[in-house]
Amino acid sequence: MSRRYENAHRIAALDPERDHLEIYQISSGLDFPWDYTRALEFALFRTYCVPSISALLAATGEFRDRPQKRYDDTALLMAEMAAHGYDSPRGKESLKVVNRAHGRYAISNDDMLYVLSTFIYDPIDWLDRYGWRPLHDNERLAAFHYYSEVGKRMGIREIPPAFDAFKAFKAAYEEQHFTYSDTNRQIGEHTVDLFAGWFPPVLRPAARVGVRSLLDDRMLRAFGFEPAPRWLTAVAEASLRAKAAGERFLPPRRVSRLAHSPRNRTYPGYPDSVRISEMGPPPTPADFPAEHLRRG
């Protein structure tokens, strides 16, 4: 059991501001890879409760036509930044693709800030409920510093300078902007269908209800979804806590799971199956410099 907590001891000895990348890599890639993946899925799902965000996503058609590709692109690009560092060659290339995708649309700075905040606080909330060990304060602060640096490189302005201030921004934003809209429901249904599609056909109806069992009341209202039966919510939460209890007895993971997805649905064999520059939405002429266009 003492070996199981060696990463936590390592994190405790690091500085959450100076060493934020290393701490985030340990936490998300070694100690909690499955939980971070699920938490970030639901973090993105949460952003679709905002009508201005869901309306843009509905207008692009990406969720209607290519939901799995959009999901895989987002997950892998963010994982590349974490695995290699946002200032590494692969991290910079990933940021370039992310910025290219966002740059073609008129997205408000507050909407961008809000999405960034969910990447910090939703995984923390998930791990507080379902993690196999308590998070160290250094992990919480490192996540804030890590995503603050990512946000700066995405051109997001006015990022709150402290952990509690950014958390307060997130809470206030949700209080003001979480409201029902038809596009919320449309994108929400596409997302539930995406998650359910990962299961055999006979299990997909149950999976759709299971996804709803993990949504809070505010999200359910914003999507216009019926709540899952209370017993199912209790079973889902008990299952996640049982999984966490079992994980406490596993040996520490030695190989990071970040940016390693050989069974990826869009890019089987990732990272060897695709170049980062080929991910994201197809480039438009505006994405290329003029001299490139002149050369044809």
Automatic annotation (TrEMBL):
Residues 260-296 are annotated as: Disordered. GO terms for molecular function: oxidoreductase activity. Residues 53-234 form the ER-bound oxygenase mpaB/mpaB'/Rubber oxygenase catalytic domain. It comes from the Bacteria. Transmembrane segments: none annotated. This is ER-bound oxygenase mpaB/mpaB'/Rubber oxygenase catalytic domain-containing protein. It comes from Actinoplanes missouriensis (strain ATCC 14538 / DSM 43046 / CBS 188.64 / JCM 3121 / NBRC 102363 / NCIMB 12654 / NRRL B-3342 / UNCC 431).
